[in-house]
Design a protein that fits this description.
- The complex is a heterodimer of chains A (about 210) and B (about 200).
- Chain A is an alpha+beta fold.
- Chain A folds into 2 domains: about 1-30; about 30-180, Galactose-binding domain-like (Jelly Rolls, Sandwich), CATH 2.60.120.
- In chain A, about 15% of the residues lie in helices and about 35% in strands.
- Chain A has 2 helices and 10 strands.
- The longest helix of chain A is centred in the first third of the chain and has 24 residues, at about 1-25.
- With about 200 residues, chain B is mainly beta.
- Classes of the chains: A alpha+beta (about 210), B mainly beta (about 200).
- The interface of A and B includes residues 76, 121, 122, 123 and 127 of A.
Chain lengths: ~210, ~200
């Protein structure tokens, strides 16, 4: 009994340690459905003359899904069409944020990455225009809104520079400076039922 | 006499060496070098001011200094514009270039555009200026005629000040500034040469 208890405590400790390690390496991702593996587009939205759909498996950066954005023609201005993550989000005052995502496009085209106030005058924070290529690359922007919360806020991508098909996957928005992508969207860890717990139970000779 | 001719020749050579022609093409911008003792026909809008600066210039005796007082809610909230009698012909390749220097790294959105709502963009591009005089250029081909049109720099992505000089806008692809001989008569170098030959 004592051995079994010791094993469970050890497993829990290992799991907590692992969770802390992961949390240290990758901040909590504030974007839901960041990798589109739910086979849904929600809560992502879009506006303007573009079509947004789930991509073919072959066009995913990781996993089996990605977002596919079809821009039929250049806009009068590049901000005339966009993709947004604006699901009741806000930017907290005096907080460093990073928003990163993987893009590719055919043909190569620009995208305007704009964390912004989600209402007129659509104040920009860390706005950054990036040049996509036909191979997936990660792009990101960092910002801090200063001394006042920004409510409502929006993570907006302006996409109507030119006609193109754009793919996006593995989106991250988190507190802190940019950290390289480590292969998967960060998630919280519940040790019960996870591999480390199972391993601990197996190591206990009185496992029931 | 021989000395005078030699001096005059040197003077001509000197002037030819230091004189930058606006371009081999016809420069459609007037006062692109800010040598007309005025900033006209350049103008600014938003929280910015435009003045002549004789202390800082790329060539000649002056440049246009743009002071940006604040960061805009959006980068297009203030701008420097050349929009007097400007029209674009659809299907024609144009180049717009200028030497720019900023007090620090500065983002400027170069936007040839329709000078009326909806401010249609033709080949706009965000460029990063630096503390060194550098020539930046943008090639663009409007798909339709644009009248009125404007060469607009959106300048309020940050509040760095900047200078602009030797601006060009012409039909055709980009060509570097060229050095050409000029008529040296009456120029300072010629006068100096004449004095020395006496």
């Amino acid at each position: 009994m004592r051995v079994r208890t010791f094993g469970r405590w050890t497993a829990a400790a290992v799991a907590v340690s692992l969770a802390i390690t992961i949390a240290g390496a990758q901040e909590e991702n504030l974007v839901t459905n960041a990798d589109f593996e739910d086979e849904l587009l929600d809560p992502w939205g879009n506006y303007g003359p573009i079509t947004v759909e789930l991509a073919d498996k072959a066009d995913a950066h990781t996993g089996t899904e990605a977002m596919k954005i079809t821009v039929a023609a250049a806009g009068v201005n590049f901000w005339d069409a966009g993709v947004q993550f604006s699901d009741n989000i806000f930017f907290a005052k005096n907080t460093d944020y990073t928003w990163a995502m993987f893009f590719k496009s055919d043909p190569p085209v620009r995208v305007n990455i704009k964390p912004e106030l989600g209402a007129d005058p659509w104040t920009a924070y860390g706005e950054n225009q990036v040049q996509l290529t036909e191979e997936y690359q990660e792009f990101w922007t960092e910002w801090n809104v200063g001394g006042s919360d920004v409510v409502p806020a929006s993570l907006t991508l302006h996409v109507q520079f030119d006609a193109a098909t754009i793919w996006m996957d593995d989106v991250r928005w988190y507190e802190g400076d940019y950290e390289p992508f480590e292969g998967g969207a960060p998630q919280s860890v519940d040790p019960i039922g996870k591999a480390t717990t199972t391993w601990g139970r197996l190591k206990s000779p009185e496992h029931d | 006499m021989a000395l005078r001719l030699a001096a005059r020749g040197i003077a001509v050579a000197l002037v030819a060496t230091i004189a930058f022609a606006a371009s081999a093409q016809d420069n459609l911008i007037s006062n692109g070098d800010f040598e007309a003792d005025t900033t006209d026909p350049w103008g600014v809008y938003g929280d910015a001011t435009l003045t002549l600066d004789t202390a800082e210039k790329h060539g000649g005796s002056a440049s246009g200094k743009v002071e940006v007082a604040s960061v805009g809610a959006n980068f297009w909230d203030a701008g420097l514009q050349y929009n007097v009698d400007v029209t674009f012909t659809g299907g024609m390749l144009y180049t717009w270039s200028a030497f720019v220097k900023s007090t620090g790294a500065k983002q400027i959105n170069w936007k040839p555009e329709l000078a009326a709502d909806p401010w249609t963009a033709y080949g706009e591009e965000m460029k990063t200026m630096t503390g060194e005089w550098t020539e930046y250029y943008l090639e663009f081909t409007p798909d339709v005629d644009a009248d009125p049109a404007s060469l607009t720099m959106h300048i309020q992505a940050d509040d760095e000040d900047f200078w602009v000089d030797d601006a060009r806008w012409y039909a055709g692809a980009y060509t570097p500034p060229v050095i050409t001989a000029v008529d040296a008569e009456g120029k300072v170098a010629t006068t100096w040469g004449s004095l020395k030959s006496r």
